[in-house]
Structures are given as C-alpha cells and as structure tokens.
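Apologies for my clumsy wording, but could you write out the amino acids of a protein and the tokens describing how it folds?
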Amino acid sequence: MKLMHHILNKTVLTLMISAAVACPVYAGWQQNSSGQWTFQYNNEMIRDKWIHTTYGYYHMDANGIMQTGWAKVHDTWYYFKESGLMNTGWRQINGDWYYMDGKGAMQTGWQYLKNADGSSSWYYLKDYGGMATGWRQINDKWYYFNSDGKMLTGWAELPSGTYYLTDNGDMLSNGNYTIGGKEYHFAESGALINP
C-alpha cells in the first residue's frame, strides 16, 4: 500500500465525482479499524462511485470501501490492484492473462491489439476473460493461438503435425487446397497428409 500512503501525504489535485462542486471542500482517504480504505468528500463517505485522482481511477463499493481485485460495476468487470488503482491493459491473474481496455473494462471475444513492438495481432479472450492459447474451436472453425496468445496464420509445425491456417486464422481440413501454386491434401483433423 505504498502508493496509498503516498497519496495520503499529498493534497488530492484532481477529484471527479458525479456531482460538480462550486466551492472547495474537504476530500481525503481514511483507513478504518479493519484496515479498509474509505474516501471522505465534503465530510461524507463516498459510496458506489468512481474516484479520479492524479494517480488514476478507484471505485468505492456500496459500503464505501475501496475495491481491490475483481469487481463488477454496473454489469462490467474491472480489476483493481492491491493499491486500489483500476487496471488497464494486460494483467496476469491466477495463471490467466486478461485484457482491460483504456476504461478498465475486462474484454472478451476477438480483440485486435497492439503489441509491445508496435505491431498488432488478433487474440481471443474466453467468456470469463482469460486469454486463449493452443487450439480453440470458435463458431465451428479451428484456430491456433501461440503461448503469448497471438493468433497464428500460415504454416504451423506443431507436435501433432503440420497445419495451414488461412489469413483469417481458420484451419484448412478434409480436402485438397492450392497454396502458393502447389496442391496439398489435409486430413479431417487438419494435419497435412502429403508434404
């Protein structure tokens, strides 16, 4: 909670709560006897609202307690760090990778995201938000995602065989296909039969 203590030692420079305020009022963090953090604004505890400080966004639950970990706010899932700061971007949680957009909302389904090197790749996030890896069937088509979650296209040399994934990522299977001017035959499993 080093960040929280740092905030306590500074004046809150920016505070955005739903109602506009015409005159300066007291605002600050307080820790209760259970070690939980609350936020006082105009001498009242903030409940079920977002707080925006110079460090980022926090959310107070219906009891006025600063939220940490996973929290569902108005039908959308968010993840709050131990300090209470809302997470954006990628985050690994209990072995799974999740992606929260710029507003902190957990994403699911197909996502076209920018990578650290400036390129962009397709990812698939499961219904619960966890990033897909390996083979995955989506709408009756098979796709392969590397260990970093990036959707694979083109030839794929895997322990189970050689496969071809189209530009859209779906696997070719059960038939003859011409690739680069040469004909190839693929089994129903998608594995290449004649190299």
Residues 2-8 form the longest helix (7 residues). The longest strand covers residues 109-114.
